[in-house]
Amino acid sequence: MSLEEEYQKIQDELQTSFDSGVTLPYEYRIGQLKKCAAMIKAMEKEYLEAVHKDMRKHPMETNGTDLKFTESELGYAMKHLKGWMADQYVKTDLVNKLDYAYQHPEPKGMILVIGTWNYPMQCTLVPLIGAICAGCCAVVKLSEVAPTASAVMKKYFDLFLDPLCYRTLEGGVDTATALLKLRWDHIFFTGSVSVGKIVAKAAAVNLTPVTLELGGKCPVIVDENTNIDTAAKRIIWGKCVNAGQTCIAPDYIYCHKKQMPTLIERMKQHITDMYGEDPEQSDGFARIINQGHYNRLKSLMNDGTVVIGGKTNDETNYISPTILTNTPLDSKVMQDEIFGPILPIMEYEDIQSVFKFFRTREKPLVCYLFSSNAKLVDEVKKKVSAGTLDVNDCLMHMMIPTLPFGGVGHSGIGKYHGKSTFDQFSHHKSVLHKPIGMESVNNLRYPPYDAEWKQNLIYSLAYYKPNAPTSNGFAKYAVTSTMAGAAFAYAYSYPGSSGFGGQ
């Protein structure tokens, strides 16, 4: 049996479960979320050890940026699920004033989640939580790049979640390729732009909607009017978490010329404060995930002048926090997402030149700005297109479940976190529920159209006008609307009475 046939069989089994309606009730969904909560607690120790083995990442950092983040999203979803599932009523026009118009969230169906390796739990379980909330069934493809963490996750996912509705798979490119050949109702992918294009192309064959959480080069602007010490500290922390292997990590800096020397000096001090004189000896600084990524990053350090760091260790995939200056704009380090602890810094005098440069590049996942100038903040907000704008901090927008996260253009399609994850996997079906009675009034809309008064009345009742009525026009409109409203009120009855729904 080929991989494609094997996965088709799995998909067919899940489809049977979905078609049975087992995932629709609130009780089932909340039950699976409670199992997710129990699963996270049960696997915590093994998972922290697994991530340390894959990346030598400090357990406290993994706990804060991965496990606890996921727990927070889960807790928020459990608290709000019932409200998310409820029909959302909308206002109606006068003709439909006594009808019921609303959006009903229905599950899209079969979901494919393709996870990634840098934050294995967060980038896999958070989308799955959204799929569960929406009432979908899902196949989760774990990343082979972090094999120890993936093995632990598969073990516990299979132990705790309903196998009739949710399956986890390990494997590499062959597995992903076979899965993408199947027809899904939604595909959620986290990873690189290049692979995101492959996913989008495969999805397009069946017009399958996608969520693509990609990345790109996230710029930082450091204005002359800012607390340069605080800016340096927050930038270094944002860059060095997970050794820079974060899609929203600061990728390069444009610093005002007046602050450039001070920024570099303060960044050097904060690297020492956080990781010691030799960060290689710090247990708080992670390693590059594998030799391939390590070699790629090591070569990027030739694209500028190393003013801080620059140390490497081929045996442990260690690259120190590194600051580069004099980086040509056409160099490799300024072309591709760095995804490591290397940070180029360039200076500017005129902020308009920075905006002009940004417009020549793909839109980033995040733009960071450090400034106390309200006018500049407003200008960046309006002139720089990015998935998110973070002012005076790094990474922390991820902690707000009510703030949707996602890219724009090459940095991604679709947003998630909080209710937005639920929305990604739901089709918000528009529903109009009209009572069956009052056909005498409805006769206005049927042919023949020979009476001009009928046309005028229909227009006055049924359509929004480009310009609000004034003076006599408004009086005529108000009288007509009032009379029509009275007629509706007289002829229609409300839900539960004998006149609603044909009863």
Give your account of this protein's structure.
By secondary structure, the protein is α/β, with parallel strands linked by helices. It is 45% helix and 17% strand. The strands form four sheets. Strands 10-13-14-9-8-15-16 form a seven-stranded mixed beta sheet, sandwiched between helices. A six-stranded mixed beta sheet has the order 5-4-3-6-7-17, sandwiched between helices. Helix 5 links the parallel strand 4 (137-141) and strand 5 (166-169). It is globular and about 85 Å long.
What topology does this entry show?
Layout (H helix, E strand, L loop, with lengths): L2 H18 L5 H30 L3 H27 L2 E2 L10 E8 L2 E5 L5 H15 L2 E5 L5 H14 L5 E4 L3 H8 L5 E5 L2 H12 L5 E4 L4 E5 L5 H13 L9 E7 L3 H16 L15 H10 L4 E4 L3 E2 L4 E2 L2 E4 L16 E7 L2 H9 L6 E5 L3 H10 L4 E4 L20 E2 L5 H6 L1 E8 L5 H4 L9 H11 L8 H21 L12
